[in-house]
Design goal:
mainly beta; OB fold (Dihydrolipoamide Acetyltransferase, E2P); Lipocalin; 2 domains; about 35% strand
């Protein structure tokens, strides 16, 4: 267990130990902090909302604490607004200690007015549901035999995804050859995380979180709009081969075809990057991916199979699966905001 007694005592804090599930690469779920102070700012932003609190220290100095929360897109869907916490509110926060910054925490709960407790699972009534920005109307697919994937989707409960904990085995590294392992040794999963610069990271990452995905289909184009990082992918259905000389991109160049009830997406032209931020799975610009989206019989969900191969970094392909279900929620603009703590 990490010893944080000195840091907490110097700031006039009380520290205890409790179990909590969070981002283990940035926060220590075995060490909690309790801070009492005054709210100075509540930033409802992505990828992490931030609650800033001034806490009086033992020497009379004011210590500013910054507590990370869930993404604004998730909180807004629960009715959260910037007025949930207002400057001047007296507050007691229980959270998880950061691994590097002694005045940062991951938010667990807040007590206000001595008894009113707020957690990130709370919902608030709102008369102003978030609406997406207007988009151009797309023509529908004309072939009735083509699987209908149009609509808003969310990863199903138990449908795959989720990140590993710090210190656990890197089970993804099994696919790397010597060149890939050398690249992994150079990767820092905390400091080199592409999401810290508001990058969508990889298609595997886009399919692996709990944010919404909007799919729009026409005869010539399938557009996949991932809520996370406002990532947009265009799958060209009128191409049988990738064009020569395509510039490498984070999410590559995609062409598609239908095989019975399955949409098959073939992607090349990737920039060098990582398929998984934590604990890390690097890939070269030779990465090739194939995604297979198959609707279920009821039409209210689909299964996703992904295969990744890299002639330079991999000794064998990596396969992964996800499951998705229809959602009546409204996608939001992500508008990722880089803060000093995320750099």
């Amino acid at each position: 267990m990490r010893n944080v007694v000195i840091a907490c005592f110097a700031s006039g804090l009380t520290c205890t130990v409790f179990a909590h599930h969070s981002n283990d690469y940035h926060f220590d779920r075995n060490v909690s902090v309790t801070i009492t102070g005054t709210v100075t700012d509540f930033r409802l932003i992505n990828p992490h909302a931030r609650l800033v609190v001034d806490v009086p220290g033992e020497n009379g100095d004011m210590v500013t604490w910054n507590c990370e929360m869930a993404a604004a897109v998730s909180l807004r869907r629960q009715g959260w607004t910037p007025d949930v916490f207002r400057p001047g509110d007296r507050i007691v926060i229980q959270g998880i200690a950061a691994r590097r910054n002694p005045t940062e925490c991951y938010f667990g709960s807040a007590t206000m007015g001595g008894s009113h407790v707020i957690t990130m699972s709370d919902r608030f009534d709102t008369d102003s549901p978030v609406r997406p920005e207007p988009r151009a109307t797309l023509a529908a697919v004309s072939d009735p035999d083509i699987p209908n994937l149009s609509g808003v989707w969310r990863r199903a409960v138990g449908g795959g995804g989720g990140g590993p904990r710090l210190g656990g085995p890197n089970t993804l590294a099994r696919v790397l050859n010597e060149t890939g392992l050398a690249a992994l040794a150079e990767y820092d999963p905390v400091l080199d995380d592409p999401a810290l610069t508001c990058s969508p990271v990889s298609i595997r990452r886009l399919w692996g979180n709990n944010d919404l995905t909007l799919i729009e289909q026409t005869d010539d184009l399938v557009t996949i709009r991932h809520e996370w990082m406002d990532a947009v992918r265009e799958v060209h259905m009128n191409m049988s081969e990738h064009p020569a000389g395509t510039e490498d991109r984070v999410l590559g160049h995609s062409i598609g075809r239908y095989e019975g009830s399955t949409l098959v997406i073939d992607t090349v032209g990737y920039q060098e990057g990582v398929l998984a931020q934590h604990p890390g799975l690097p890939h070269s610009n030779q990465l090739h991916s194939v995604e297979r989206l198959t609707p279920n019989e009821a039409g209210d969900g689909y299964g996703l199979e992904m295969t990744f191969d890299d002639a330079l970094y991999f000794s064998e392909p990596l396969t992964d699966t996800r499951a998705f279900e229809a959602s009546d929620e409204v996608p939001q603009r992500y508008n990722c905001t880089i803060t000093e703590l995320e750099r």
